[in-house]
Amino acid sequence: MTVTKLLHTRLRVNDIEQSVKFYEQALGLIATRRHTSPRGAQLVFLATPNSDEEIELCQMPAGAVPVVVQPDLMHLAFEVADLMAFAATLKVKGYTLSDGPTRTSSGSIIAFIDAPEGYEIELIERAR
Hints:
The protein is of the alpha/beta class. The chain is 17% helix and 36% strand. The model has no long low-confidence stretch (mean pLDDT 94).
């Protein structure tokens, strides 16, 4: 027996509205549903274009230990068609790359942008 599909990845956040705004505005993800978990956490699911997997943002109830993301702990990677054009659009929206762009040995170009809690978001323009 094996699993059949990856459904979602959860990221804990301190300010769910700030995080939803970032993922929608900077990356073009779409909030598809919101609800409160049985434990009282606020949840927002984000759809990613051309992917079945979702990102689940989770803000724990008041009084929970704040999220502190360790440097280089994890990241999400998204493919973009033209990294330089994408970066220019990010800049117009008030977001800046935190690293890159860098050409890899495979010929792809990568760069990073930081989400509100410090989660790294990798942007990849694949080699053609």
